[in-house]
Amino acid sequence: MRTFGSAVLVLIALLLTGAAVSSAWLAQNAVSAQGFAQLAQPLGEDESFQAELSSAVASQASTAVTDGLPEGLASLVAPVVERVVSGFQEAPGYPEAWTQTLARSHAATFDSGTPTLDLGPLLNLVSAQVSGELGTEPADAGERLLTVSGQDRSGELENVVRLADSWPLFAAAAALAALLGLLIARRRSTTFALIGAGAAVVAGVLWLASGAAGRIVEGQTPANPVASTFIDGLIPLAQSSFQSWLLVLLIAGAVAFVLGLVFRLVAGSRRAVR
User: Fold this and answer.
1) Is there a contact between 56 and 119 (Cβ–Cβ < 8 Å)?
2) DSSP secondary-structure letter at 44?
3) Upper half-sphere CA count for residue 23 (Cβ side, 13 Å)
4) Residue whose C-alpha is closest to residue 241's, from 32, 31, 22, 44
5) Cα–Cα–Cα angle for 58, 60, 62, nearest 5°?
6) Pairing state between β 145-147 and 116-118
7) How far is 124 from 94, CA to CA, in rounded Å?
8) 116, CA 20 to 30 Å: which among 175, 212, 224, 267?
9) Reported pTM
10) How many whole angstroms separate alpha carbon 57 and alpha carbon 169?
11) Which neighbouring-strand residues pair with 205?
């Protein structure tokens, strides 16, 4: 009975560990605006995404800068806008504008429930450069939203937030279940080794699950080319980040497994000497 009870507690601890790792990653990289900005920051230097981003910014920047101008003057300003946009990603303020774009996109997505990109900060950067060349005052672009998906994801986002907020509870419950499983086990060293092996298995299962989830997301076509390229670039970054967490869990599980075996051998040697 003790062995069965210990096995059940260890299984519960392993399931809760998987939930804790997943929810903690979501809390840091999906729910946190700062964490999301750090996760997606490398996309600002991705050539494929930069090409699509330039097209979208060029279209909106031309409209924003020439809005209200006489037709003749607008035709003179348009080439300036095109030239600025073609190299705006090399501007000194681009990294900060891209970070603000990610933060504002995160806020717009969670506020509206619809996955959205806000290109306002990038348009402000282009507007400032164009105004500098024309000697005019730059206009604030405000919100310039591109819909990543037309579907309302409010329910899914609320579930993500709730799951992310629950990671301390999952972690505490996992630790408690593992401790109780060890306390009632007949052979604690063996149980400790099994916990380590189980943790490694959980890491492997989540690794495979992250790949499957990425393929599912890739199968959903976003509303426009910019959003599509953004999603295509973000998925590998998210997978790599999550898998780096799983690698830590895998290593910790392997260490626990080896230590459990060592403790088991030491305990067996002591009994043999006696």
Assistant:
1) yes
2) G
3) 19
4) 22
5) 65
6) antiparallel
7) 10
8) 212
9) 0.85
10) 44
11) none
Dist. CA 245–CA 167, nearest whole Å: 14
Q: Do the Cβ atoms of 125 and 93 come closer than 8 Å?
A: yes
Q: Is 91 exposed, middle or buried (0-12, 13-18, 19+ CB in 10 A)?
A: middle
What's the rounded Cα separation, in Å, for the pair 176 and 219? 40
Distances (CA, A) of 153 to 32, 109, 112, 149: 17, 9, 9, 9
pLDDT at 204: 94
Closest CA to 64 of 43, 85, 49, 48: 85
Are the C-beta atoms of residues 29 and 36 closer than 8 Å to each other?
Answer: yes
Look at residues 83, 81, 85, 75 and name the one whose alpha carbon lies nearest to residue 52. Answer: 85
Contact between 14 and 195 under an 8 Å Cβ cutoff? The reply is: yes
Which two structure tokens, joined as six digits, stand for 166? Answer: 């629950």
State the number of CA atoms in the 13 A half-sphere of 112 facing the CB: 19
Beta pairing partners, 145 = 118
> In a 10 Å sphere around its CB, with 0-12 CB exposed, 13-18 middle and 19+ buried, how is residue 9 labelled?
buried
Task: Kindly give, in sequence order, each residue whose CB lies less than 8 Å from that of residue 119, ignoring residues fewer than 6 positions away.
Answer: 53, 56, 57, 60, 101, 141, 144, 145, 146
Give yes or no for a contact between 114 and 105, defined as CB atoms under 8 angstroms apart.
Answer: no
* Residue from 51, 21, 52, 54 nearest 224 by CA: 52
Question: What does the pLDDT look like over 154-211, one tens digit per residue?
Answer: 888 999 999 999 999 999 999 999 999 999 888 888 889 999 999 999 999 999 998 8
Q: Where are the alpha helices (DSSP H) in the chain?
A: 2-26, 33-40, 47-66, 71-86, 94-112, 120-134, 154-165, 167-184, 188-218, 225-273
Classify 145 as helix, strand or coil: strand
